[in-house]
Amino acid sequence: MVSALLRARCALAMLACLLLPAAQAATPQAQEAPIPVIVDNDFGTDIDDGFALSLVLASPRLRPLLVTTTYGDTRLRAQLVAQLLQDTGHSRVPVAAGPAVGTREGEIGQAGWLRDAHRPVRADGVEAMLRVLRQRPAGQVTLLALGPLTTVQAALKRDPVAFARLKRVVLMGGSLRRGYGPVAGTNSDTPSAEYNIKLAPQALRELLASGVPVEVQPLDSTEIALPADLQARIFAAPTPYAGPLSKLYALWAARSPWGTTPTLFDVVPVARLLDPAVCTPVPLHITVDDDGMTREGQGAPNASACLDVDKARVLALVASTLAPAAKAAQVQP
Q1: Is 193 helix (H, G, I), strand (E, B) or coil?
Q2: pLDDT tens track of the chain, all 333 residues?
Q3: Which of the residues 129, 195, 208, 267 could staple to 302 if both were Cys, CB 3.0 to 4.6 A apart?
């Protein structure tokens, strides 16, 4: 009797040992620590920055350490970001303005959303970025670069040793095999001079030569239109992001020369961090022309690039995060 009971206990113990790894594997995200990120963006020009930053803030899988602004009136951009952080319950995330360089192409059409024109913001986004990198363990922080790379370029020049502590840079920019399409969510069959790189081509050259791992999300993989039904659900969802996004969208749509359907360019790099399966990067040697054209050149790879994307998977991620009451499986690209 005792022997039979002992054998039963041993069998149960062995079964538990076999089932435990399977149970752990079934919930990997619950055990993974949040990914520490710095977000550099040109908030206030196109509406995709608002959706991308909201996705970062709403995702427990990401831990934003700092938001910096780039290109044009970076102080105004930082004020808008600070207001979004405050209105969505993330006022502890620091925000800092990068160098105010650029042309009128960086005009900020969403400036009317700002309630306080005297809102104080940190003035030196470059030093703020480098300070985070010096304070965190090397190889831990990912930089999400979602605008022209002028602030990133300034940080690399000021302290290349601290900049090299980045784990990687995931950026939205460039156009390799396909370009801007005639309407939101479509591509042309030929590459284009993509906006972010056209405004600062030398900055991308220097980043690609820095030795820091770079992953590029070009127009090839970022032309994703936001469906009208999903947009409506995001704006009506019981989240702190619904109100700010709907107001920012209205300001953008009133001035947009591209139509009123948002293209989620900057959302794709965020989605890539949250769900690596949205695309499969390939190693490439990327060259940059003075006019901002990015090309596949000869030589050892200096970056990886996503040349396609699972649009339905990206939209499902946006739906589940920013419209949590919606059934993501019903979203169609």
Answers
A1: coil
A2: 444 444 444 443 443 343 334 334 333 344 689 999 999 999 999 999 999 999 999 999 999 999 999 999 999 999 999 999 999 999 999 999 999 998 766 689 999 999 999 999 999 999 999 999 999 999 999 999 999 999 999 999 999 999 999 999 999 999 999 999 999 999 999 999 999 999 999 999 999 999 999 999 999 999 999 999 999 999 999 999 999 999 999 999 999 988 999 999 999 999 999 999 999 999 999 999 999 999 999 999 999 999 999 999 999 999 999 999 744 444 545
A3: 208
**Dist. CA 246–CA 316, nearest whole Å:** 19
Dihedral of CA atoms 308, 310, 311, 317 in degrees, nearest 10, equals -130
Distances from the Cα of 303 to the Cαs of 168, 208, 224, in angstroms? Answer: 10, 7, 23
List the helix and strand counts (H, then E) for the chain: 14, 12
What angle do helix axes 242-255 and 74-87 make, rounded to 10 degrees? Answer: 150
Secondary structure class of 63 (helix, strand, coil): strand
Task: Say whether 216 sits in a helix, a strand or coil.
Answer: strand
CA distance 246 to 315: 18
Apex 181 CA angle, 260 and 172, nearest 5? 85
DSSP-H helix ranges across the chain: 2-26, 28-31, 48-58, 74-87, 125-135, 150-158, 160-163, 195-198, 201-208, 219-222, 228-236, 242-255, 267-274, 311-322
Q: List beta partners, residue 142.
A: 37, 168
Residue 84 CA to residue 114 CA, distance in Å, equals 10
Say which residue the tokens 């993989």 belong to: 221
Residue 44 backbone class (left: φ over 0; alpha: ψ -120 to 50; beta: rest)? left
Count of beta carbons in the 10 Å neighbourhood of residue 46: 22
Task: Quote the Cα angle for 169-174-178, to 5°.
Answer: 130
- Sole residue written with tokens 């059934």: 327
pTM of the model: 0.88
